[in-house]
Amino acid sequence: MPKQLVLMAAVAVSYFFYHYEFFSFADCVLECREKRRSVVILTFVLNYAWFVAASFLDLHLIVNWTIFFFFFLLQIRIFYHVGFDKSAMLAYFGIIPGLAWNICLRCIFALLLNRPLTSFDNQTKLPGNIKEYPIFLGFVITGFLFYFFRQSQLYERLCIILRDRSSLRFHVGIQFVLYVYLVLNLLGYYVPSNSVFLKFWGIKSAVFAFIGLNICIVYTMRMSRLNLYRRKMREEWTTMLTDKEEEERLWTLAYVDALTGCYNRHLAGQVLEKYSAASKDYCLCFVDLDHLKTANDKFGHQEGDRYLKTTASVLTAAARDEDYVFRYGGDEFLLLFSEKNRSQVTDLLKDTGEKLKQYSSDKNFPFIMSISFGVAQCSEAETAEELLSLADRRMYEQKRGKDRRKR
């Protein structure tokens, strides 16, 4: 009897060591900074009480370990406030190594002592049952295993898996298969024969479970990393697109006229500086809408805005991709034509003016739309400012000529 009490106490101490190291390992995996000793002690008392009760009740080993798994599952979920998948993964990770070592050591003891596996089942009341020895060693070895995982930071692999839900579910599925594979080996403890084959089969199953669990962790970790990298790439791509869209939006606010959709005066200055500095051949055209103020006063600003937008549309249609159309002021537009001479631009603007007049009737305008323009070749002035002034002057000369003809 004293020997039995000593064995029970030794098993209790070994289980506490295993239990404490497992929950310390769980703290690391779940990144829980605060180690709650009261929780560890409470769960130890509950779990070990179940082990003792299961032994006295002579419950089947499969039932015993399965209920032990659900104890771990509920305790992790309640005390760490994590979802089912994370709780199941950690519970299986606590159970599978412990069960594998217990099966392996029971089979080794059975081989060394030439005893049948029934000597190591859950029926502790029967004479000759010596399951305490392999259980004691199994818990001690598994406890050191979790200690090693913590110290070597191998738990970080599980942390990576926990961050990817699809990989986590896959991992839990493989763990379930390994667990079922192991618990089926417990049926051998109820076979009365002293079969060497069953003992070696149990050792082989434990080794297979360890190898399978390791492969599962490595593979799932790599899969998780790929998924995390894929998500990160998507996020970076989305951020890049968002930044690009924001950049385009800000550029539009800075350089595009909101009413007409043409470039604005601010960009016109930059483009002129660039062309002048590069000594490019270009032609500048100043365009002014005739009688816009009269249209606004007589027909309202809505018709005046329609006048501006229609003119902008016609001018843009006349320009090529390499040309620029700017809204320079209230009723003024500036056009820059690359590699065109003054005569070509003048003919183009005359045609554009005729199209605009045609639009007046086609678009049901209550007035005739027309433009006045002045064209200047870059070779006619030394600076962009002088060229701009020349085009502006010629535009006003054309406008005054129209007014004289009307009188």
From TrEMBL:
GO terms for molecular function: diguanylate cyclase activity. InterPro entries: Diguanylate_Cyclase, GGDEF_dom, Nucleotide_cyclase, Rev_trsase/Diguanyl_cyclase. Gene3D superfamilies: 3.30.70.270. The keyword Transmembrane applies. Residues 280-407 form the GGDEF domain. One of its GO terms (cellular component) is plasma membrane. Keywords: Membrane, Transmembrane, Transmembrane helix. GO terms for biological process: cell adhesion involved in single-species biofilm formation; negative regulation of bacterial-type flagellum-dependent cell motility. CDD domains: GGDEF. PROSITE patterns: GGDEF. The chain crosses the membrane at residues 6-26, 38-56, 62-80, 92-113, 133-149, 170-191, 203-221. This is Diguanylate cyclase (GGDEF) domain protein. The lineage of its organism: Bacteria, Bacillati, Bacillota, Clostridia, Lachnospirales.
